[in-house]
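Dear Dr. H.,

I hope your travels went smoothly. While you were away I took the liberty of generating a structure for the chain from your last submission, since the lab meeting agenda had it listed for discussion. I wanted you to have the full record in hand beforehand rather than looking at slides cold. The sequence, exactly as received, is reproduced here:
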Amino acid sequence: MTEHNLRDDICRVGASLFARGYVHATAGNISVRLPEGGYLITPTDACLGTLDPARLALVNEAGVQTSGDRASKTLTLHRRIYGADPQARCVIHTHSTHLVAATLVQTGPTDDLLPPIAPYFVMKVGHVPLIPYHRPGDPAVGELVAQRIAQMQAAGTPIRAVMLDRLGPNVWHRSPAEASAVLEELEETARLWLLTRAAPLNPDQIHELREQFGATW
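The corresponding predicted structure, in token form, is as follows:
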């Protein structure tokens, strides 16, 4: 996919998330790793609902911005995610309401922000570690996230999302559309959990999802 196409994809996904309430005001950001090296990322304090493809920040492989409006302050975190998971091609961060609410009832870091209450959550999202609170944009968060990605990979349960305590999720996948689908499944699972406190799937049910669909729970 060309840089031009990826710029359009970022704006399309941003507008869709904004229209459906997954992001609000100027919260959240989206980045992609370019096939030829470097990154596109949404500008700092930009509204994801009204992004301009031409104003997205272009950043080279070394993390130096070369064009566009000033890059989001979460650029360091995005780059650490890409470095920790070579398969990641798009990272999305939001302040999704139900996910942030879920952190307010948790205590301390955990490998599971949410229990495995629904099959598609297990299949499409998987484990979501909770990262301890740091101020927005704190570069220390990148190291914590990279460490957690490596730990989960070593355990045989690779992840595609983490939750920043009191701030929101970071999710990643091979494209903006796929990363957006992970975010949506994650936020809807948080909403279900807060509404119901449903019992999790039992070990046999989770084992069946591993066998039939390759779930990595």
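Two observations you may find useful: Strands lie at 29-33, 39-41, 57-59, 65-67, 90-93, 130-131, 161-164, 168-173. The CA atoms of residues 41 and 75 lie 7 Å apart.

With kind regards,
E. W.
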